[in-house]
C-alpha cells in the first residue's frame, strides 16, 4: 500500500478563552488513504469541525503533526497554507458560500484566480466542471436564481475546479431537503468513484452511511473508526 | 496572482455593488470637481490682476515733485515743482537699469472739434512715454523729435476721446482745439481699458511736452522753468527694481544739490508694488478657495474609508471563502486596496469632467473669468488616487488580517 494521502499523529487543538484553555481535540492519530470516502460524525462539541478545519489547512494545530500527500503541513506559514489549499484541497460548505450577484461560472472559476492558470483557460476549466455537476444550462445564473441543490452543485464544481486530491465537505446536505441531499450524495459518490478522496462531516446517520468509512468523535477523541458497506445514493434515486 | 487578475476581481466586486460604489464615489466626485472649479475661479481672478499689471506696464517707477511747506502747512506732492524735464533726460542717460524715462506735464481741459466737445486730461510728454507704458499707436504715427523740440501743434488721442469726438470716422489730420489751442491729430492710441482703480485709461490725450508748456498751459512761470509734474520710468526687464530705485534717488539728490541729512525734495513710487500686493492677495484668496475645496476632498476620502470598512465587515464570509480557496493575506489586501483606489480614480475622473464643465459653465453663465490649469487637474487626480490608497489601506489591512476559519464562520 502506498503512503496515505492524510496522516495525522497526536493532533491536538486548544482554544484559549480568556484564562481558560479549552481542549477541542485531544491527540488524534489516523491515516486516510487516497480514494477513500470518509464520513466524520459526532455531536456538536465533539471536535469533528475542529478536526475538519485542521485537515483543510484553515487553522494551525496546537500540537501533533499532519502530513498531506507526503508533505508536512502543520508547520507551514499562512501563505504556504493558502497555496496548499489552492492546489490540493476543495471545500464544500453547509451554506454553499457562493458570491452573491456573481454568475455560476465566475463562482466556479474563483479558485483559479488565485492560481497560476492563464486567464484564457480559467473559463474553459470552470465550464467543464459545471457540465460535470450537471449545470451546463445554468452557467450564467446568479446564486439567487438557483435552487439550494443547484447552488450546492455550483459549490461542488468550485471545489473541483483546481483538480484537488481531497474534497472536504462540511455538512454539505445540512441546508437541503432529503431528496436533494441524496442527489448531492450521489454526486459525491460519483466523484469518489472517479478517484477523488472525500472527507465529509455530518451529524446525520443517513448521510454518513453513503460513505465507505465512518469515524466518530466525542470529546475531542476518536471513539470509533469502522468501514461501512456504503449505500448507493444513485440507486435510491432510481 | 498577477495584477490584472486583482484588478479584475476588484472591478467585479465593484460592479456587483453598483449603488454602493456610486455613492462612495460621490464624495470624491464632488471634492475633485470643487477643487478644479475653485482653482479655476481663483486663477481667473489672478489672471485679471496680472493683465492689469501688464496694461499699466510692469517695472514702472514714478518720480513726483516734493511737497512745499508754507506757514507750517504742507502741500501735497507736486505742490513744489522740483523735478524737471532735464532730470528725466539725465535718468535716461546715466542709469543703466533704466530702459526709458518720460517726463510729463499734466493738465486738464476741454477738447473741441466742430460742435463736439469733451473734457479730458492731457499729458505733455516725450516719445519715451509710449515706450514706458507699452502703449502702441494703432492709427497714424507717434511724435517726432522735431515736434518735441519745437512745440509742434500735434496731438495723440486715446480711444475714448477719439470715439466721443469723432464717432466712427477717422480723426487723423483733423484739427482739435485743446484749451482753444488748435492741434492736429496725428495718431490714435491702442485701447488700454480700465486700470485697477476703475479709471478709464483711454480718456486721455498726449502732446509734446513743449507744446503743453508753451502753448496749452501757457503760464509764464511754467513756461520759464523746465519743471514737470512727474517722471515715469521703466526699468529694464530682469533688472533689480530696488537697485534702480536707489540709483535714481542718488542721482536726483545729486542733481538737486541736496546735502546729506536733508530730506528728498521728490517722491519715488514703485507702482508695480501696489499691484504685486494685490496679486499676492488674490493668490491668498485662490489658495483659500483651494483649501476649502480640499476639505470636501478629504471628506470624500473619509467616505471611502467608511464604505470600505462597512464592506469589509459585510463581506467577511466572502473574504473567508477567498482565503479557503487559496487567496493569501496579501491577495486580500491588494484586492481591497485596488477597489478603493479604483473607486477614487473613477470618481476622480468624473470629478475632473464635472469640474472642467463647471468652470466653463461659470465662465459662461456668471461671466466670471475662470482659468483652468493643467496642474490643478493633475493635482486633483493625484490627490484622489492618494486618498484611495490612504483611506483604503486601513480597511484592506483589516480584511487581510482575518483568520480564514473565523471569517468563514462569521455570521
Question: What descriptors fit this protein?
Answer:
heterodimer; A: 238 residues; alpha/beta; Rossmann fold; six-stranded mixed sheet; four-stranded antiparallel sheet; 10 strands; globular; B: 411 residues; alpha+beta; six-stranded mixed beta barrel; two-stranded antiparallel sheet; 57% helix; 18% strand
Question: What is the class of chain A in the CATH system?
Answer: Alpha Beta
N- and C-termini, Cα separation of chain A: 36 Å
Question: How many helical elements of chain A?
Answer: 8
Strand order of the largest sheet of chain B: 4-5-10-7-9-8
How many distinct beta strands of chain B?
12
Number of helices of chain B: 14
**Rg of chain A, nearest Å:** 18 Å
Element pattern of chain A in H and E: EEEHEEHEHHHEHEHEEH
Q: CATH architecture of chain A, please? A: 3-Layer(aba) Sandwich
Which protein chains make the most extensive interface, counting residues with beta carbons within 8 Å of the other chain's beta carbons?
Answer: A-B, 27 and 26 residues
The CATH homologous superfamily of chain A corresponds to P-loop containing nucleotide triphosphate hydrolases
CATH third-tier fold name of chain A: Rossmann fold
Instruction: Name the assembly state.
Output: heterodimer
Q: What is the structural class of chain A?
A: alpha/beta
Largest sheet: number of strands, sense, barrel closure of chain B: 6 strands, mixed, barrel
Count of spatially separate domains of chain A: 1
Amino acid at each position: 500500500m502506498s503512503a496515505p494521502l492524510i496522516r495525522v499523529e497526536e493532533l491536538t487543538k486548544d482554544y484559549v478563552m480568556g484564562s481558560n484553555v479549552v481542549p477541542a481535540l485531544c491527540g488524534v492519530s489516523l491515516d486516510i488513504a487516497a480514494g477513500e470516502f470518509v464520513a466524520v460524525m459526532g455531536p456538536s462539541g465533539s471536535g469533528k469541525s475542529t478536526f475538519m478545519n485542521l485537515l483543510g489547512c484553515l487553522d494551525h494545530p496546537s500540537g501533533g503533526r499532519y502530513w498531506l500527500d507526503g508533505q508536512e503541513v502543520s508547520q507551514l506559514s499562512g501563505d504556504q497554507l493558502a497555496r496548499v489549499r489552492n492546489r490540493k484541497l476543495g471545500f464544500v460548505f453547509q451554506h454553499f458560500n457562493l458570491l452573491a450577484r456573481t454568475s455560476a461560472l465566475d463562482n466556479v472559476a474563483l479558485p483559479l484566480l488565485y492560481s497560476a492558470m492563464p486567464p484564457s483557460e480559467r473559463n474553459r476549466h470552470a465550464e467543464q466542471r459545471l457540465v460535470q455537476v450537471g449545470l451546463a444550462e445554468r452557467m450564467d445564473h446568479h446564486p439567487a436564481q438557483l435552487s439550494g441543490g443547484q447552488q450546492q452543485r455550483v459549490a461542488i464544481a468550485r471545489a473541483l475546479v483546481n483538480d484537488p486530491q481531497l474534497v472536504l465537505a462540511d455538512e454539505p446536505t445540512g441546508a437541503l431537503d432529503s431528496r436533494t441531499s441524496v442527489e448531492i450524495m450521489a454526486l459525491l459518490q460519483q466523484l469518489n468513484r472517479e478517484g477523488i478522496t472525500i472527507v465529509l462531516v455530518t451529524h446525520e446517520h443517513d448521510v454518513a452511511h453513503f460513505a465507505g468509512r465512518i469515524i466518530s468523535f466525542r470529546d475531542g477523541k476518536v471513539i470509533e473508526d469502522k468501514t461501512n458497506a456504503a449505500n448507493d445514493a444513485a440507486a435510491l434515486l432510481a | 496572482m498577477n495584477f490584472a487578475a486583482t484588478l479584475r476581481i476588484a472591478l467585479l466586486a465593484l460592479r456587483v455593488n453598483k449603488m454602493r460604489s456610486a455613492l462612495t464615489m460621490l464624495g470624491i466626485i464632488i471634492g475633485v470637481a470643487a477643487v478644479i472649479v475653485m482653482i479655476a475661479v481663483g486663477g481667473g481672478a489672478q489672471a485679471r490682476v496680472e493683465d492689469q499689471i501688464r496694461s499699466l506696464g510692469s517695472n514702472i517707477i514714478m518720480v513726483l515733485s516734493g511737497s512745499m511747506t508754507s506757514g507750517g502747512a504742507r502741500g501735497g506732492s507736486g505742490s513744489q515743482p522740483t523735478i524737471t524735464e532735464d532730470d528725466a533726460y539725465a535718468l535716461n542717460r546715466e542709469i543703466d537699469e533704466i530702459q526709458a524715462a518720460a517726463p510729463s506735464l499734466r493738465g486738464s481741459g476741454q477738447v473741441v472739434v466742430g460742435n463736439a466737445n469733451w473734457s479730458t486730461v492731457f499729458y505733455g510728454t516725450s516719445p519715451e512715454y509710449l515706450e514706458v507704458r507699452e502703449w502702441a499707436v494703432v492709427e497714424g504715427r507717434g511724435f517726432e523729435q522735431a515736434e518735441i523740440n519745437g512745440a509742434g501743434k500735434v496731438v495723440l488721442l486715446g480711444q475714448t476721446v477719439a470715439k466721443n469726438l469723432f464717432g466712427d470716422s477717422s480723426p487723423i489730420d483733423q484739427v482739435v482745439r485743446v484749451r482753444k489751442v488748435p492741434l492736429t491729430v496725428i495718431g490714435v492710441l491702442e485701447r488700454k481699458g480700465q486700470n485697477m482703480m476703475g479709471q478709464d485709461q483711454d480718456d486721455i490725450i498726449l502732446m509734446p511736452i513743449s507744446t503743453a508748456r508753451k502753448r496749452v498751459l501757457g503760464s509764464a512761470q511754467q513756461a520759464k522753468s523746465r519743471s514737470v509734474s512727474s517722471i515715469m520710468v521703466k526699468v529694464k526687464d530682469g533688472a533689480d527694481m530696488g537697485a534702480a530705485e536707489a540709483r535714481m534717488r542718488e542721482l536726483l539728490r545729486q542733481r538737486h544739490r541736496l546735502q546729506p541729512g536733508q530730506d528728498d525734495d521728490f517722491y519715488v513710487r514703485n507702482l508695480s508694488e501696489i499691484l504685486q500686493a494685490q496679486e499676492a492677495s488674490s493668490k491668498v484668496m485662490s489658495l483659500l478657495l483651494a483649501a476649502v475645496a480640499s476639505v470636501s476632498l478629504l471628506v470624500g476620502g473619509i467616505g471611502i474609508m467608511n464604505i470600505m470598512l462597512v464592506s469589509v465587515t459585510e463581506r467577511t464570509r466572502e473574504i473567508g471563502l477567498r482565503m479557503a480557496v487559496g487567496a493569501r493575506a496579501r491577495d486580500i489586501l491588494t484586492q481591497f486596496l485596488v477597489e478603493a483606489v479604483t473607486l477614487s480614480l473613477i470618481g476622480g475622473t468624473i470629478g475632473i469632467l464635472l469640474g472642467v464643465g463647471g468652470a466653463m459653465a461659470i465662465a459662461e453663465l456668471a461671466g466670471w473669468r475662470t482659468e483652468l490649469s493643467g496642474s490643478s487637474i493633475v493635482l486633483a487626480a493625484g490627490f484622489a488616487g492618494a486618498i484611495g490608497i490612504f483611506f483604503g489601506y486601513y480597511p484592506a489591512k483589516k480584511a487581510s488580517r482575518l483568520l480564514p476559519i473565523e471569517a468563514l464562520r462569521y455570521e
